[in-house]
Amino acid sequence: SRKQTCPPDRNCPPIASWLRHSTTTTSCYYRGSKYGQTRIPQVQTLYASAPKAWSASLQPWTEFVEHCWGSNATSDPTRDQAEFLLAGAKLYNVRDIFVARGADAVARIKTHSESPLLAAANVVAYAEEELPSVPLDSILPDADPDLQQRLAPVYRLVRAMEINLGSNICRRIYVRGHPTHTRSQESPGVEVREHRVYNQRVVLQLRSENPCYIRLAYAYYPHLQVTVNNRMIEPLETADHFIALPLDAGEHRIEITARLSPLRRALLLLNLALLCAGAAWMWSERKNA
Fold it and tell me: Bridge partners of 250?
């Protein structure tokens, strides 16, 4: 699991050798220093108004990765840090992480995360104050207080979910606005047979051995259209602002489609009306001239 992207005339610092739990995956996440130095785009440069999942969960985790593996790291990563990195990779479906290790050196961490989902037999109503208190000393002993404060809820949530790093199963999924519920006493087993991502649509073909809940690595958005076997369902919002769905045993085809909010649709129609009115006025003025 030790791979780096580095100029041939330089010696890059090593990466923790226990980053293994081999599987495959479909998505990548890029993280570096300034684009002008690494030539690697940062996810926060891709959109100006990110969903809550970014600021509340994904951003603190990426800053943790940069703090522990980046060019300013003061010591080799510990096993606790590596396990938290791998758990985050499963939460966000991250296969490769690129971290700046200097002005012109980039390290590549292969997480081998396989699946866009985590499955659990039950969901639990989320209340942050009820999660077990977990000290951050083992993963961020020397970080600034601001990062520790923002990362603490993410770390507590990951520990409480009890993610199995060798599969796509966790003990429980925490959700907002939904009561605690168990769908089966059996361990969930979900096989991803197809995962296709289009411009505004995602298609998943799954097989579930038992009734369960799945948490998908797609950010929650109030105007998402989600269908399971061509039947519209309302997705649950997880504690970290991703989406979760209930599944019965058997084959399932899931489609996720992004839709504009009513306000944006109204503004789009207004803009089109103004454009047509302006074009008509210009045509009328030119005709009269």
Answer: 208
